[in-house]
Amino acid sequence: MPLPTDEKLLALSNHLLEQFKTIFGQHPGFRPAHAKGAMLTGTFTPSTEAASLSRAPHMTRESTPVTIRFSNSTGLPLLPDNDPNANPRGMAIRFNLAEHSHTDIVSHSIDAFPTRTGDEFLEFLRALASSDLAAPSDPKNPKPIEVFLGRHPAALAFAQAPKPAPSSFARESFFGVTAMRFINADGVARHGRYRIVPEAGNEHLDDAAVAAKGPNYLFDELKERVAAGPIVFRILVQLANEGDVVDDATIHWPEDRTVVELGAISLTAAVADDAHEQQHIIFDPIPRVDGIEPSDDPLLELRAAVYLISGRRRRSAPAQ
Q1: Per DSSP, which regions of 166-256 are E strands?
Q2: Whole-model pTM?
Q3: Structural domain that includes position 298
Q4: Residue 46 domain-assigned?
Q5: What CATH number corresponds to the domain at position 82?
Q6: Could you say which of 15, 27, 34, 191 is catalytic?
Q7: Residue among 230, 225, 227, 291 nearest 265 (CA)
Q8: 178-222 residue pLDDT tens
Q9: Is 280 annotated in the active site?
Q10: Is residue 146 assigned to a domain?
Q11: Between β-strands 189-198 and 180-183, what pairing exists: parallel, antiparallel or unpaired?
Q12: What mean pLDDT comes out for the span 118-142?
């Protein structure tokens, strides 16, 4: 995938990457966010409903191989799994359609995003980077991040949203917060957002239980779980109604909207040479496949550019 030619987009992407480096430090070979991760392989099997929503190849074939990356938040590769900053967790899914042909889903474990645009997100990161989070709050002299949150209700809601730690990556739900446009064989198009839910059900830990866990409890448990048997997730899409806002990741649709099940993922093995493969793979928030198109959400082009730029830098760094 070539780099975008839009100079403003490239400049904004590089500014964002610089802010991540300011906040988390420089860790060559690792992602600027969601640095700590692990990858598994398995198979996606579409539901009988899938083709009614999209004509994309993985919705019409009997099955498609997948590669999944689970991750903690932040750009710190050694962040303990029981650190509160490790939330939200991430889940990226690659559908391997053919040699050198794929489409991806990028999601995280909270159904929200702090800002609508990349410029707002850069402002958010700059406020975070310039704030002493360890210092007590002073109403007479608020921190930059407190000022930002006070002016941006969506970011405040994101910051205040519960982010409990899961007992397992296999017991957590994940959300694609930017809408996609799904087109079926008859040309009927609907906007929707991905929801990825665990077959085993959600299970979260209280603070005491989290504190008692080891620093790698999620990744250790993931290896043990997949060795014992398949890990299964269901991929759902919440569909927008006519008139719903489809280009703003900070706006939720009502829970009464139709939810379609696209199919199930069965994860059966850890990826061989995991560290090398994590350093090499670049997930793409834009689907780039017939039958699924990006919405007009301004975050999509920006996230794709950031992922590509940081991914190329990661590939050129020494091995992890």
Answers
A1: 174-175, 180-183, 189-198, 231-239
A2: 0.96
A3: 7-112+161-316
A4: yes
A5: 2.40.180.10
A6: 34
A7: 230
A8: 999 999 999 999 999 999 999 999 999 999 999 999 999 999 999
A9: no
A10: no
A11: antiparallel
A12: 93
User: Smallest Cα–Cα separation from 70: which of 43, 88, 92?
Assistant: 92
Sign of the torsion formed by the C-alpha atoms of 143, 144, 146 and 150: positive
The residues, ordered by sequence, that sit 6+ positions from 136 with a Cβ below 8 Å of its Cβ are none
pLDDT band at 318 (very low <50, low <70, confident <90, very high): confident
Q: Token digits for 286?
A: 């834009």
Digit-coded pLDDT (tens) for 71-114 = 999 999 999 999 999 999 999 999 999 998 999 999 999 999 99
